[in-house]
Amino acid sequence: MNISTRQGTAEDIPAIFELVKELAIYERALNQVTNNVDKMTRDYNEKLFDFFVAEVDAKIIGLCLYYYRYSTWKGKRLYMEDIIVTESMRGNGIGKILFDATVTAAKQVGCTGMMWQVLDWNTSAVNFYRKYGTNFDNEWINCNLDF
């Protein structure tokens, strides 16, 4: 199997949105997805996020979506919103390829580190991140405000 990765483009958004929905189904939360292809395309064009895709035979089978944030303590940080690999391709090292590409990109633009969230019940993802020496924070409470 020949896996390739590349920076995503606006033309990839319909395909990556299908991966977003697949992740929402996996996380038992499809009803919480209010985003759509048009909104994602607009937000991408406004440079609110960027992404890498993984492909096999020119078909997108994985995604890592990220954006930059600023920490008053640490400076520029990359926030990794999601790594998604289509279910049939999981276990082939695609997540690692996407994660490594994202780490490299963060370093290239001078980030002081990366941040992301992982569901505590997603043991395969937790174990994957442990291999990188990830610090898991048990002190901070995640908050959100929907509009």
Automatic annotation (TrEMBL):
Keywords linked to the UniProt accession: Acyltransferase, Coiled coil, Transferase
Domain N-acetyltransferase: 3-147
Coiled-coil positions: 16-43
CDD domains documented for this protein: NAT_SF
Name listed for the protein in its UniProt record: N-acetyltransferase
